Amino acid sequence: MNFKLTALLLLFTISTITAQQKKWTLEECVVYAVENNLTIEQYELDLQNAMIDRSDAVGAFLPDANASLSASGNTGLSFDPITNQPVTTTIFTANGGLQSSVLLFDGLRNIHRLNRAKLNALANQYRLDDLKDDIRLSVANAYLQILSNKETLIVFQAQYAITGQDLKRTTELVNAGVVPKGDLLEVEATAANLEQQIVNTENQVLISRINLAQLLQITDYENFHVAEADYEVPPSDILNNSAKEIFAKALTFRNDIKLSNSYIDLAVKDLAIAKGAKYPTLGAFFNYNTRYSDQERFNNITGMLEAESFGNQLWLNDGISYGAQLNIPIFNGFSVRNNVKRAQINVRKAEVQLEQDKLDLETNINQAYVDVKSFSKAYYAAQKTADARRLAYDYSKERYDVGLMNAFDFSQAQSRVEDAEAEVVRTKYDYIFRIKVLEFYFGVPIDLN
Length: 449
What we know:
Elements: H1 2-20, E1 23-24, H2 26-36, H3 38-59, E2 64-79, E3 86-105, H4 109-175, H5 181-215, E4 225-226, H6 243-253, H7 255-276, E5 281-293, E6 297-299, E7 304-306, H8 310-316, E8 319-327, H9 335-401, H10 407-441
Parallel strand pairs: 1-4
Antiparallel strand pairs: 2-3, 3-5, 5-8, 6-7
Helix pairs in contact: 2-4, 3-4, 4-5, 4-7, 4-10, 5-10, 6-9, 7-9, 9-10
């Protein structure tokens, strides 16, 4: 028993450690977010409702069938349902029936409702897919923000290590009387500033991790970590296409455009349904009824009062009715006419919304196209600046080491290097994300590999 308990505890411990050590890749984050996002779950439920509406529309073509059964007892004066004669006694009666009706013509509204239900299910699917696209972009942005903050933290930590060496060396020089104590205070101030930047960046790493975890509906923030990776700017030929070419292709597959088109189709079907109310409706019905009474009656064959059996009465007292009904709309207080006008307005509104969505998409693509170019220039300019700052820092360090530069000027040179290297990290990940956004508009899946 102790061995089993120990084995279970060991297995639980291993599982817990493994879970805590899990490093999430971007692909895993995207898949998990799509599968667990609460808004996506709501949209999936809306899609299920749309499929039920489609089933309702199919059912409207089928005849209905309903059965009824009633039984009652009366004491005193009442009417025998078989003879329809008044009787003063205790009487037990039963009635049963089967009713069915079918709509034969309703101005084609049932057909339009069925087609509308199909279009609505398709629209809900586009709506769901569009939300998934937005979540993929949001997750990619949050993921890259974590990497950017972590890489910036590494830069500051590396600079702090170098400053620690400078602090040690300056302390020795001050103790030896080679440099004034003010130089030591300047280096200490630089070290303290770096400590503050490290603390701030650690907080930014934590906040960015929490933001991504919230997108994934994960509450265990402390044990949520992304995979360690140093992503470089990926090779991309997306700029070989013009913004117009990217926009033209986006129109063929973007779910938000498909959704807007489906809304026009839905509005057109609503207009057809509204116009169908102008036409007559034709329906047919069939009813079967039978009844039973426990009252005795005179039997002409036997010459005696007898109560007919329950089974015999069911077919002796049954009856059938059937027919058709035509309803012709003549005047309805302008409701049909006004509903048609409203439907026509909704068609036009859906068409205008499609044009607006196309315009928004084109604007976003043009902005993304410009962003790729501008962030590319910013990234390469930041690299050049960082290279120049490093050379200047190396030169300043050489002068500082031989006493030709004071600690204040040297700390300024070091600060400029820190800022330049942090800017390289920031612009790099901004550039990577802008490339991925533009590629996404072109139909390229989000992937950092």
